[in-house]
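Technical annex, item 7. During the second reporting period the consortium partners agreed on a shared format for inverse folding records so that results from different sites could be compared directly. Each record opens with the tokenized structure and is followed by the designed sequence. A conforming record, contributed by the partner at site C, is shown below for reference.
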């Protein structure tokens, strides 16, 4: 278990009043900063066990609701082209250097000294490792606790204030949600035109709600900080002062174009990952346009924002399978695509992340 025994960087200590969007998150993150973070304890917690039970229930519900025959689905999976699946795996893992480069920009904006001398803790390999370990944590514990774990890794290795680190990760999540929803709308327009099929309203409704919450949170931090500051317990003022400073400084106008390009690159690669998975199944799945495939990939990624199960386990599987049926894909083929895609972007993280966690010197 990591112990919180550092004060953070001087740039992160600027006392800016805070206004968090969700007060309960303030207390939870402050508690982690104060008491430490143990993946093993989180994994054994009742909340984690309940979330895995819920994920299994959702998968069973979808399989029974669509009347999917697992033997037929397995037969489709066995016929997949392994080289195209490996290409999808490679495309997926290319997103980590892009995410690390973007996070480095955000850290620099927030005043973290990532460029001073030879900072091994802030090198690209180190940042990639932090992100990968945090994704591993998100795959085995609910509520996006991997984000807090990543901030703690940076604090443990680089002596960066936990609240400053979590502020940059918060900014990163905002970029992801805004970029994902924007590209989802564009891909839907090229796929469906002005007439959206039944069922897609749920995806756009959820995405639109997230965007409204994000913009409201940013407006709250920028304009209503003194009001929310009065509501917070005094012990949280300094913590969220640093958090707010880092989150708002991350969006400097001069750097926004670079952040937008990096975010677009991440989500395009996510779409191409699913493209190669679908191509691996060959002519059996029919012809889907690239915009339709990106729409399916982004729809499932959007629902990983739900903190009820680890990395959206169960929810994502159901979404990909159901959305593929909108395009006339056979339900058994849709299930095969779902399982193969999750083999890449979930189970490879679980296995690879566990190995990295065992041998990492930065964990």
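Designed sequence (site C submission):
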């Amino acid at each position: 278990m990591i112990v919180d025994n550092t004060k953070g960087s001087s740039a992160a200590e600027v006392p800016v009043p805070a206004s968090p969007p969700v007060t309960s998150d303030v207390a939870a993150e402050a508690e982690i900063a104060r008491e430490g973070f143990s993946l093993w304890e989180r994994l054994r917690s009742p909340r984690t066990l309940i979330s895995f039970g819920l994920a299994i229930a959702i998968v069973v519900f979808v399989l029974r609701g669509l009347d999917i025959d697992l033997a037929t689905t397995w037969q489709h999976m066995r016929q997949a082209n392994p080289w195209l699946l490996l290409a999808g795996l490679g495309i997926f893992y290319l997103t980590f250097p892009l995410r690390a480069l973007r996070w480095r920009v955000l850290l620099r904006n927030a005043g973290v000294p990532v460029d001073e001398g030879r900072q091994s803790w802030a090198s690209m390999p180190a940042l990639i490792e932090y992100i990968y370990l945090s994704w591993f944590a998100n795959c085995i514990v609910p509520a996006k606790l991997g984000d807090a774990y990543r901030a703690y890794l940076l604090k443990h290795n680089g002596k960066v204030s936990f609240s400053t680190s979590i502020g940059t990760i918060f900014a990163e999540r905002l970029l992801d949600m805004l970029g994902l929803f924007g590209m989802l709308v564009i891909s839907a327009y090229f796929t469906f035109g002005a007439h959206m099929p039944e069922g897609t309203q749920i995806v756009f409704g959820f995405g639109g709600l997230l965007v409204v919450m994000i913009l409201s949170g940013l407006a709250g931090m920028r304009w209503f900080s003194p009001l929310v500051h009065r509501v917070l317990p005094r012990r949280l003022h300094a913590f969220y002062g640093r958090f707010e400073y880092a989150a708002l400084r991350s969006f400097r106008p001069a750097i926004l174009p670079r952040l937008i390009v990096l975010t677009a690159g991440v989500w395009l690669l996510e779409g191409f990952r699913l493209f190669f998975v679908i191509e691996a199944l060959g002519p059996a799945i029919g012809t889907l346009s690239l915009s339709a495939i990106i729409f399916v990939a982004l729809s499932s990624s959007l629902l990983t924002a739900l903190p009820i199960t680890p990395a959206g386990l169960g929810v994502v599987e159901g979404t990909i399978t159901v959305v593929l049926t909108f395009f006339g894909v056979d339900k058994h083929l849709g299930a095969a695509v779902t399982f193969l895609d999750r083999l890449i972007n979930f189970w490879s993280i679980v296995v690879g992340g566990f190995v990295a966690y065992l041998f990492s010197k930065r964990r």
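The radius of gyration is 21 Å. The chain has a mean pLDDT of 81. All partners now use this format for quarterly exchanges.
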